Amino acid sequence: MDYDYQQIDDVIHSRIRTAIMAVLVSVTEAEFNFLKEKINATDGNLSVHLKKLETAGYVSVKKIFVDRKPVSKYKITAKGFKAFENYIKQLESIVKR
């Protein structure tokens, strides 16, 4: 096996998206502000990256209202979990060479 970087999932391979996925695999679900705090990202930046993960089918979002305020809750999907697992394996195979 060679150092085939092209096998790395481009959707996940971003510092913020990798961090989002890492947080989401460790929790049942996470509110937007929790992710923002954990990852230390701005609202706009986090939104853009979450949307990209959602479009890929890696995360799902549930929007609810709590005390008349909108709250977005995110969770990793089965497809996202598998993609993240493969992403980590691919990085490990490159690094271990």
Supply the CATH superfamily name: Winged helix-like DNA-binding domain superfamily/Winged helix DNA-binding domain
Give the strand order of the largest sheet, numbering strands 1, 2, ... along the chain.
1-3-2
| Name given to the CATH architecture | Orthogonal Bundle
Largest sheet: 3 strands, antiparallel
Summary tags:
52% helix; alpha+beta; 97 residues; 3 strands; single chain; Arc Repressor Mutant, subunit A; 4 helices; three-stranded antiparallel sheet
What topology does this entry show?
Elements: H1 15-25, E1 30-31, H2 32-39, H3 43-55, E2 59-66, E3 69-76, H4 78-95
Antiparallel strand pairs: 1-3, 2-3
Task: Report on the architecture of this protein.
- Strand 2 and strand 3 (69-76) form a beta hairpin.
- The chain has a three-stranded antiparallel beta sheet.
- The relative contact order is 0.21.
- The chain has helices spanning 15-25, 32-39, 43-55, 78-95; strands at 30-31, 59-66, 69-76.
- The chain has one domain: Winged helix-like DNA-binding domain superfamily/Winged helix DNA-binding domain (Arc Repressor Mutant, subunit A).
- The chain starts with 14 loop residues before the first helix and ends with a helix.
- Helices cover 52% and strands 19% of the residues.
- With 97 residues, the chain is of the alpha+beta class.
- The chain contains four helices and three strands.
